[in-house]
Design goal:
Alpha-Beta Plaits; 2 helices; single chain; 5-stranded antiparallel beta sheet; alpha+beta
């Protein structure tokens, strides 16, 4: 997982295939409802459809598996 330290907050950055605003909103809402995380966003304009999660308190494989359960590709952005 690519984790960046930001005043003790961990940030997870993932590559996805979330392509629409509707999909983005559904995935973000599902993540926020199921995990203890800070703000998250998916940049659907970026070629990697980057999912960024601030204050990530779970291991990356939990997020990856969860997003895949929602029907989308998800992997750590290298």
């Amino acid at each position: 997982m690519q984790l960046l330290t930001n005043t003790s907050a961990m940030i997870g950055i993932f590559k996805t295939n979330v392509a629409t605003y509707r999909e983005r909103n559904l995935v973000i809402k599902a993540i926020c409802n199921n995990f203890d995380v800070g703000p998250c966003n998916i940049d659907i304009e970026d070629c990697d459809k980057v999912l960024r999660i601030v204050d990530l308190k779970v291991e990356e494989h939990h997020i990856i598996d969860f997003v895949k359960q929602q029907g989308f590709h998800c992997e750590v952005l290298e």
